Amino acid sequence: MILGNSALDINVHDTYFVVGHFHIVMGLSAIFGMFAGVYHWFPKLFGRMMNNKLGTVHFWITIICAYGVFFPMHFLGFAGVPRRYYTNSEFPLFENMININEIISMFAIMAMIAQLIFFFNFVYSAFRGPRAPMNPWKANTLEWTAPVEHFHGNWYGEIPHVYRWPYDYSKVDANGEYVSGEDFIPQTTPLAEGEKDGGH
Length: 200
Ligand code: HEM
Ligand code: HEM
Description:
mainly alpha, 2 domains, 4 helices
C-alpha cells in the first residue's frame, strides 16, 4: 500500500523507489508463483519428483538475490535517483550511489547463475527423478486422481464425480477423529452420511 500514501509518493514518484517497490510486489510474486507451479505440478507432468535439496538451495539463493536486487533500489530512490534514465553513471549527482548499482548487478548475476540449479533439477528429474506416487502432496483436487499417462480424456472409464469442495483438510468428526482417516479428503470421495460439504 506504500505508494498509495501520497505524502510519501509525491517525493518518491518517478524514482527508483517505485521500481524497487513494484518489482517486489509484482515481479517477485509472479516469478515465485511460476516456480511454485512448476515444482508442484512437475510430478503430474513427468511422473517423477524434482530433487528437494536442489529445490531448497535454488529457492534460498533466488529469494536472497532477488531482494538483493530490488531492496537497495528503494534507497536509490530515496536518494533521488530517477527511473527511466539511459545511464546512471553520467551524472555527478548519482556518483555516490554507483556502488549500490554494482551490488545490485552482482546480486542479479548470482540470481541468474542460481537458475542453472533449477534447469539442471528440471531436466535431470524429468529423466532420472524418483517415480512420483499418484498424489505426492496429499492434495484434494481432481488432477491428482488422474494417472500420469498421456492419453485422450485424462481418466480411464467414467469421468470422476466431484462431491466436495477442494479444501477438505483436517476435517474432524464429533469425536475429533479425521473423517477419512487422513488429513485430506479428495474431491472424489462421497460425503459420509450426515457430513456437510465445507463449500456450502
Ligand atoms: C493497495 C495496493 C496498491 C496500491 C495502493 C498501489 C499504489 C501505487 C501507486 C500510487 C503507484 C504510483 C507510484 C509512482 O509512480 O509514484 C503505483 C505504481 C505501480 N504499481 Fe501499485 N499499488 C498497489 C498494488 C499493486 C499491485 C498488487 C501491483 C502488481 C501486482 C502493483 C503494480 C504497480 C506497478 C507496476 C507500478 C508502476 C507503474 C509504472 O509507472 O510503470 N501495484 N502503485
Ligand atoms: C530479473 C528480473 C528483473 C530485473 C533485473 C528487472 C529490472 C528492471 C529495471 C532496472 C527497471 C527500471 C528501468 C528504468 O527505470 O530505467 C525495470 C522496469 C520495469 N520492470 Fe523489471 N526487472 C525484472 C523483472 C520484471 C518482472 C518479472 C516484471 C513484471 C512482472 C517487471 C516489470 C517491469 C515494469 C512494468 C517496468 C517499468 C518499465 C518502464 O519504466 O517503462 N520486471 N525492470
